[in-house]
Amino acid sequence: MECTAIKKWNPEEAPICVEIVCPVMPKLENGNTKCSDENRHQSICRFVCGEGYRLKGSRSSICTTDGKWSAEMPVCEEIICDELAIPQDGSKDCSGDQFGQKCSFMCNTGFDLSGSEERTCQADGTWTGVPVHCNKATCGLLPKCGRDRSWDDFPPFCQINRCEPLTEPSNGRMFCVADNTFGSECAMSCNMGYMLRGSKSRTCGADQKWSGEAAECVAVQCEAIHEPEYGTMICSKNRNFGSICTINCDSGYDLIGPRQRACGAEGRWSGLPPTCELIHCGPTTSPQHGNVTCSMFDQFGSQCQYECNEGYKLVGSNSRVCQESGAWTGIQPVCELVQCRPLASPENAFVACSSGNDYNSRCRYVCTVGFELVGSDNRVCQSNGRWTGDRPYCEQPRHGSVQCSAGGDFGSVCSFTCDSGYSLVGSETRVCEADHAWSGSQPYCLQVTCSVLVPPANGYLSCSAGNLFNSICSFSCKTGFNLQENGIILLQHAQSCHVRPPFSWITEEAAAQTVQITDLAAAIPAISVTSSKALLFASV
């Protein structure tokens, strides 16, 4: 990448590293392929042909850095031996020229066979034994009569022809009539798990040879079977009779079919070829009032997460995994409606809820008539199972009290009174009527107040509690002025607000005697008094 003059990289996107993989190696027909690391880089795949087949091509191939296999896919060719010639003055009988097939040879009458009477096609593509020739038979010389009138050899005589004794085939049995003399017939049979190759019955002929072919018992072999895709197979005794192949699937795959297959006496495998299929646990459903999210649907290893809608809580496993057994872990969860703890009615009150103590239920508190609610009058059940607000309570009316004859039942009469200094506003009594409602209106206690006092001219006003009940107001004058009422000079004056309708001010008794001054001269007759001004403070 190059940083250009416009402050951008060329190219703009950085390269990424991608794992090197080669094409998936196909299965080798009539053989087997084993790879060390599937089709990843440096994986080595080795090729082996089944019995009776020869590998043509490379025995192994490596996944190279350019994503290609180092060698082409080989093939397994059937092993075929060269065709054997028919001997002159003789005949040939072959079952075939493939691996394991046999050819037997016979000479015409008057000819003797030299070489191998039977030859077998081997795994290396050659025949066992040596080539066959048919040579003309010779009779030999007759005995001659000598001068002494005696034969130079024993005179001929006739005896029953005998064939060479036959041997019982290995892993089999032989039953003969008349031993190995002319006309004797021998029957061959094989033990279980072996099959007869050659003549089942042979007869000793006049030429002192047994008819047919030599019999042998060869182990029964079943055809080659291959391990299933995504699985492995282990077999005992190669492919012979009694061989048992055990099949196992890779982790996450389920075996469909028999786990074991046996090679039977008739050369066939028991059961049908099994397969390895990906394990499925079956779809899991969303709980009512909730949903589920799965990583790989219902496949092995898939993990499903459950959650509930708002107002519902999950009961059961919140996560489940698809196991190798084909079952989900845990149990199917359910979403239950969230419930708060039931609310208790406070003393002197009752509570009414829209949906009991279920989620989103709204509960309203109402106090018995005359009582006042302190706290939340409405509470709602939340998704966390808790109520909003705090628990309220009902208290006696402020600055008063209530007395009811029968609680809050029908016909109950409640009387209201206020504390001293407070007056009742509203109905003094209320009755619980048949329509579940109280008569009258809700009363309350209002604090008593007197009229607002005004300070006198050239004077002062001081009140202990304004114009409220029991407030005491004192009046005083500025220097040079006397407090008087109706022409009477007051040494001390005060008023208090009483709680007696009409809630007026009451003048309290004077603390000292008042002095009435109407005429100073009259008060002091022996003195002559003159003044240019009215009798004001500081007048002389």
Automatic annotation (TrEMBL):
One of its GO terms (cellular component) is membrane. Disulfide bonds join 49-76, 107-134, 190-217, 249-276, 308-335, 418-445. It comes from Oikopleura dioica (Tunicate). Residues 20-78, 79-136, 161-219, 220-278, 279-337, 392-447 form the Sushi domain. One of its GO terms (biological process) is cell adhesion. InterPro entries: Selectin_superfamily, SEZ6_CSMD_C4BPB_Regulators, Sushi/SCR/CCP_sf, Sushi_SCR_CCP_dom. This is Sushi domain-containing protein. It comes from the Eukaryota. Keywords: Calcium, Disulfide bond, Repeat, Signal, Sushi. Pfam families: Sushi (PF00084). Transmembrane segments: none annotated. The keyword Disulfide bond applies.
